[in-house]
Amino acid sequence: MDNRPVTERRRTLGALLRLPYEALQREVYGGLAARGFPEIRPAHSAVFRHIGPDGARLTALAERAGMTKQSMAYLVDGLEEAGHLRSAPDPNDGRARIVRLTVRGERVLDALLDLSAEAEARVADRIGKRRAAKLRKALEEWVDAITVASPR
Amino acid sequence: MDNRPVTERRRTLGALLRLPYEALQREVYGGLAARGFPEIRPAHSAVFRHIGPDGARLTALAERAGMTKQSMAYLVDGLEEAGHLRSAPDPNDGRARIVRLTVRGERVLDALLDLSAEAEARVADRIGKRRAAKLRKALEEWVDAITVASPR
DNA sequence: ATCACTAGACAGATTATCTGACGAACTGTC
DNA sequence: GACAGTTCGTCAGATAATCTGTCTAGTGAT
């Protein structure tokens, strides 16, 4: 049995992941807005995370992001309208569209990665370089354990 | 400049927090469904996280959860309909309603905390006890740093 | 040629959030 | 007391981000 007081029991790993994650997200998407991309919302990262330099099919993006084609289409439509993506029919498959980042879209991806690195550096300043390195290492280990168990 | 390859640059702290968090959430809410509470969805945790043994006002819950009164009212309504909460007028303030957990609601909170602790134990099994302890410690430090900076 | 499968679109629903406006109730000051 | 300003919760309406189910067109293997 767990006899610790509720306030302590409530400090779950989930909460300890969620709070920093939300803080990070505020920093990164705030920074993105400040850099001239206020239209990019957190959900859009599902696209930027999984699109490669040669673009990808809608279905491939959806599968990698673990969501339905319809949901991914919704996100892609928004980004295409804002000029971050451009889609063209696949010459090898008449059913498929290939979605690619535009130059503007590549700038967003770059800004996203920059801002993330900056935010991580600030974390290291706050909690110490060693501790931040251990944090990253432990998370990487955990993510690897998850990923082999149920590949994305 | 950051000259690491894109695949490595993409392994941001955000991603390293998000993936475990999502995995954890699946485990916990899956477990909750298995324990007979399939109607509890992740968003509802905003209520369980912030309600105390003596209940709370809607407005207080909303503020603690960092959302609008309207959004919190939506979540509370759902939980009240499902019998996890019961709300009564505040005898000291005619405007206010006090929302309290029912016995069923308390069982949910208990299950939530149990499942979280179990999930954390499984993480320790996977990545090692020492590493898991360091992970928790680093996250606690980070959360504390966030919380003093912008108290919730 | 046909037939099973796949890519993406369309229609419609659900969940979880928001903003703005509002009436009722409380609180402090005159 | 009366009045002004604040706070509590609700209503109406909108938006974001997801889902299921159905459909057409295209592919590919027999």
Which secondary structure elements does this structure contain, and how are they paired or packed?
The structure is a homodimer of 152-residue chains.
Chain A: H1 6-9, H2 13-34, H3 45-50, E1 56-57, H4 58-65, H5 69-81, E2 85-90, E3 93-101, H6 103-127, H7 129-149
Antiparallel strand pairs in A: 1-3, 2-3
Chain A binds a DNA duplex (30 and 30 nucleotides) through α5 and β3.
Structure description:
2 copies of one chain form a homodimer. Chain A has about 150 residues and is mainly α. Chain A has one domain: Winged helix-like DNA-binding domain superfamily/Winged helix DNA-binding domain (Arc Repressor Mutant, subunit A), CATH 1.10.10. In chain A, about 65% of the residues lie in helices and about 10% in strands. Chain A contains 7 helices and 3 strands; from the N terminus they run H-H-H-E-H-H-E-E-H-H. In chain A, strands 1-3-2 form a 3-stranded antiparallel beta sheet. In chain A, a hairpin with a 2-residue loop joins strand 2 and strand 3. In chain A, helix 2 packs across helix 6, helix 4 packs across helix 5 and helix 6 crosses helix 7. The longest helix of chain A has 25 residues. Chain A starts with 5 loop residues before the first helix and ends with a helix. The interface between A and B is large, with 46 and 46 residues. Chain A binds a DNA duplex (30 and 30 nucleotides) through helix 5 and strand 3. Chains A, B: GO terms for molecular function: DNA binding; DNA-binding transcription factor activity. Chains A, B: InterPro entries: HTH_MarR-typ, MarR/SlyA-like, Tscrpt_reg_MarR-type_CS, WH-like_DNA-bd_sf, WH_DNA-bd_sf. Chains A, B: This is MarR family transcriptional regulator.
